[in-house]
Fold this sequence. Notes:
Oligomer: single chain
Helix content: over 70%
Order of helices and strands: HH
Structural class: mainly alpha
Largest sheet: none
Radius of gyration: 17 Å
Amino acid sequence: MKVLPSAPEVLRESLVLIGGAILAALILQQLPQLRSWISQSTKGCDCEH
């Protein structure tokens, strides 16, 4: 039974995560309406406990 992932698996998942964050930032940079909508939709959210 394999408990810990191998180094290449960790690296691959890390790159996917970082790539997704960069892609999301680029999309939000190009679409200010989407950024405003996200900002408005999360106002009043009691997300931080």
